[in-house]
Amino acid sequence: MKGLEDELLGRLEGKRFGVVGIGNVIKGDDGAGCLVVEKLGEDFSMPTVDCAEVPENYGGWVERRELEAVVYVDAVEFAGEPGEVRIIPLEKMMQSATSTHHLSLHYMIKFLKDEWTGDAIMIGIQPVSMMIGEGVCDEVAAGAEQLVKVLKKAVK
Question: Which residue has the higher pLDDT, 43 or 115?
Answer without folding.
Answer: 43
